[in-house]
């Protein structure tokens, strides 16, 4: 097959430009990334060879070999792992084939330190080779294939692919080093980089120089199998970088061995930054499963639940059968026991952090709290443990608060834990729906994650208190005791409200005017400053949830809501007085404007934007007209 010249995907070209021009302070990481890729390739072939031993019959000893050539100014990194075919080459090296590309590019800042982390999270470490090389050549043959392929690029926008005869199994990456990068041909430099970044690799990393016997540069034993007191913090960190393909620091490192009915070792990490696939629809977990140090899969559905998918690391068990298939894993009772152990251990560590290091835990919660809350909806068995880990922003003040904090501040006579949902915390914290609660000093949880609409409905109570949205039904504020001075204010406010018969007349006019646009019109107990608000009738779908479903084309129609009016507001009193004379065009216009105002505050558009604009202009014109005009 003749050599083909192909263009990089546009996103790859941009990543390459950033890598080459922004990451000079950490050039040596290119070697870490290439060695990690080789290690993964060997792991995959080792697992596949369990059922297809003929794939490695001619070369059963896995290894990664570094070959510096000072005369040619090249450094070669070769592995005898799974290898690639033509489609793999184009898919893996010519495109960014993972979802989330748009978000990835949107988050690139031009700040090299931040972009290092973003690029690492996105899993494009191969391109770091272009930091030190002006040309990169990849020769590869997939295990079991008859012939190999050659991929070549200078990293400027295109690459070539051609057949390559006599290619060895695996992948050989040859870097033609730029001027000034000769340090990466020196034995002491290569030895230092491998020892620093890749000592944990369970596959030997060999240095081959000329006709000399290859030297092993790393310890070549799986890090998780070593005693904890023999592993440094730096080694733990570098293994995290390897297993997570990340550049950030791990927020939590958990290394333990479980013994008893089933034996396994876990080395787990919680990142300090969000991985890019955190909210992808497939919700894949990323903990690798090994059996006696043999890699089985990094996509084991039952190993950790989807609501812990931010966890990275490895689990190794000698009790699972070595030839276990992914289909068998899904129904394996031993795997279920391992999952229980892992989840309980992780939740226990999170609880310790929450109790002993609240500031550090707050950082974790802001990063991964929205994912952890999915467990409140999906995992009934562990809901109590998760409840203790929940943290919230509330109307009490800045910072995060637990359910226990909230309960300790509940008012006498308060029977509910109140919450409000929305898209933006600043916006919902100023909602008219909160006015009555603030007036009585009642704290309200401010919930802004989409999952909040689901788990609160799935958790009807906290201890003896039910959870209730401030946007649903009646406000239930009458039974909550206030200070005596506040009670006096209440009496003054009631004395200043529109007379009941006038208010009843206004409600009759508004109901007739608005018709089916509202479910009901009634006086409000929750409003103290605003004239109106919209609330959901008891049993109706919450307004924020309905808006989310409409945005995702899961719901077409809009449910009419209850319009609540504030009897003490000057505008409502004025309208109530006018209503004594019966309906009028002016009252009707004001009724529509009140409804549209309430809709806008809730994040909805006016029912009829053109009519809204005309009515608003008419009212404004009346407001600025000269007296007697």
Automatic annotation (TrEMBL):
Stretches the record annotates as C: 548-629
Annotated GO MF terms: ATP binding; ATP hydrolysis activity; ATP-dependent protein folding chaperone; unfolded protein binding
Subcellular location: Cytoplasm
GO cellular component, one term: cytoplasm
Keywords, in A-Z order: ATP-binding, Chaperone, Cytoplasm, Nucleotide-binding, Stress response
Location, primary (coarse class): cytoplasm
Region (A): 1-326
Bias-annotated ranges (Basic and acidic residues): 491-502
Residue ranges, annotated region (Disordered): 482-502
InterPro entries: HATPase_C_sf (IPR036890), HATPase_dom (IPR003594), Heat_shock_protein_90_CS (IPR019805), HSP90_C (IPR037196), Hsp90_fam (IPR001404), Hsp90_N (IPR020575), Ribosomal_Su5_D2-typ_SF (IPR020568)
Record function comment: Molecular chaperone. Has ATPase activity.
NCBIfam families membership: PRK05218.1 (NF003555)
PANTHER family documented for this protein: HEAT SHOCK PROTEIN 90 FAMILY MEMBER
Family affiliation: Belongs to the heat shock protein 90 family.
Subunit comment: Homodimer.
Protein's recorded name: Chaperone protein HtpG
Species annotation: Caenispirillum salinarum AK4
Lineage: Bacteria, Pseudomonadati, Pseudomonadota, Alphaproteobacteria, Rhodospirillales
């Amino acid at each position: 097959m003749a050599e083909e010249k192909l263009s990089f995907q546009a996103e790859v070209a941009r990543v390459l430009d950033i890598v080459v021009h922004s990451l000079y302070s950490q050039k040596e990481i290119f070697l870490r990334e290439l060695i990690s890729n080789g290690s993964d390739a060997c792991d995959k072939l080792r697992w596949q060879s369990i059922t297809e031993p003929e794939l490695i019959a001619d070369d059963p000893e896995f290894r990664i070999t570094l070959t510096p050539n000072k005369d040619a100014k090249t450094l070669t990194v070769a592995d005898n792992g799974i290898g690639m075919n033509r489609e793999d080459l184009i898919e893996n090296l010519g495109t960014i084939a993972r979802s989330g590309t748009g978000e990835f590019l949107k988050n690139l800042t031009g700040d090299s330190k931040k972009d290092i982390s973003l690029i690492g999270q996105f899993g494009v470490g191969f391109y770091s080779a272009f930091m030190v090389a002006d040309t990169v050549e990849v020769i590869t043959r997939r295990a079991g294939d008859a012939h190999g392929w050659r991929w070549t690029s200078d990293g400027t926008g295109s690459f070539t692919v051609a057949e390559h005869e006599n290619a060895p199994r695996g992948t050989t990456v040859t870097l033609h080093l730029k001027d000034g990068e000769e340090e990466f041909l020196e034995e002491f430099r290569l030895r230092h980089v491998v020892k620093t970044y890749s000592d944990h690799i369970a596959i030997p990393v060999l240095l081959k120089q000329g006709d000399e016997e290859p030297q092993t540069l790393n310890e070549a034993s799986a890090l998780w199998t070593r005693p904890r007191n023999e592993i440094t913090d730096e080694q733990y960190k570098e293994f995290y970088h390897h297993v997570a393909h990340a550049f950030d620091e791990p927020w939590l490192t958990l290394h333990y061995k479980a013994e008893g009915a089933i034996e396994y070792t876990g080395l787990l990490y919680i990142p300090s930054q969000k991985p890019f696939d955190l909210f992808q629809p497939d919700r894949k977990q990323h903990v690798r499963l090994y059996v006696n140090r043999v890699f089985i899969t990094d996509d084991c559905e039952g190993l950790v639940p989807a609501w812990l998918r931010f966890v990275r690391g490895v689990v190794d068990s000698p009790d699972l059968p070595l030839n276990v298939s992914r289909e068998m894993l899904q129904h394996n009772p031993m795997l279920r026991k391992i999952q229980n152990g892992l989840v309980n251990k992780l939740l226990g560590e999170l609880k310790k952090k929450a109790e002993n290091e609240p500031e550090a835990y707050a950082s974790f919660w802001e990063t991964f709290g929205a994912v952890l809350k999915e467990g409140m909806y999906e995992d009934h068995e562990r809901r109590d443990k998760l409840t203790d880990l929940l943290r919230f922003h509330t109307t009490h003040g800045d910072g995060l608060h637990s359910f226990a904090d909230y309960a300790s501040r509940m008012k006498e006579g308060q029977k509910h834990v109140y919450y409000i949902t929305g898209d933006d915390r600043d916006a919902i914290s100023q909602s008219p729906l909160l006015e009555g609660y603030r007036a009585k000093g009642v704290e309200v949880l401010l919930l802004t994650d989409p999952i909040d609409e689901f788990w609160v409905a799935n958790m009807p109570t906290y201890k003896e208190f039910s959870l209730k949205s401030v946007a649903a039904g009646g406000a239930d504020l009458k039974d909550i005791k206030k200070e005596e001075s506040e009670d006096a204010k209440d009496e003054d406010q009631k004395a200043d409200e529109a007379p009941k018969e006038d208010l009843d007349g206004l409600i009759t006019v508004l109901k007739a005017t608005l018709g089916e646009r509202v479910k009901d019109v009634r006086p409000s107990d929750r409003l103290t400053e605003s004239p109106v608000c919209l609330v959901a009738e008891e049993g109706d779908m919450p307004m924020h949830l309905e808006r989310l479903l409409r945005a995702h084309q899961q719901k077409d129609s809009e449910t009419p809501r209850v319009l609540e009016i504030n009897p003490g507001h000057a505008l409502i009193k004025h309208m109530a007085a006018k209503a004594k004379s019966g309906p009028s065009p002016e009252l009707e216009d004001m009724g529509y404007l009140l409804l549209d105002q309430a809709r806008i505050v809730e994040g909805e558009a006016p029912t009829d934007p053109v009519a809204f604009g005309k009515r608003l202009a008419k009212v404004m014109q009346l407001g600025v007209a000269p007296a007697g005009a």
